[in-house]
Amino acid sequence: DFIRIFENYCKTREIPFERHVVEYMLDDYYRPNKIPLRGCQPRDLITQALTLAAYLGQPARLTPELMDAACRSYFVHDRELPATYA
Q1: Spatial distance between the Cα atoms of 74 and 44, rounded to a whole number of angstroms
Q2: CB 21 within 8 A of CB 67
Q3: What is the domain partition of the chain in residue ranges?
């Protein structure tokens, strides 16, 4: 289960698991954009969020704002390229 992977990786990183933050991310990024759930994503997104938190001098915990930033940089929307680039 995808949420359980998030929870387990939070334990690995010794940070609180915030279920509402994961559900927010699923509702705002995954479902609307039809992003498939992959087992590596929780680790990658948590790592990005914690790296940003450290850079900003914030506590090591997941927040909707940090996960927004992680999702924006992790999930790139493909745009249709002009025929000359295809």
Answers
A1: 8
A2: yes
A3: 2-75
CB-facing half-sphere around the CA of 1: CA atoms within 13 A: 6
Q: How far apart are CA 4 and CA 19, in angstroms?
A: 10
Over residues 11-33, the pLDDT tens digits come to 999 999 999 999 999 999 999 98
Q: How far apart are the first and last CA of the chain?
A: 37
Burial (0-12, 13-18, 19+ Cβ within 10 Å), 21? buried
Nearest-angstrom CA–CA distance, 49 and 71: 9
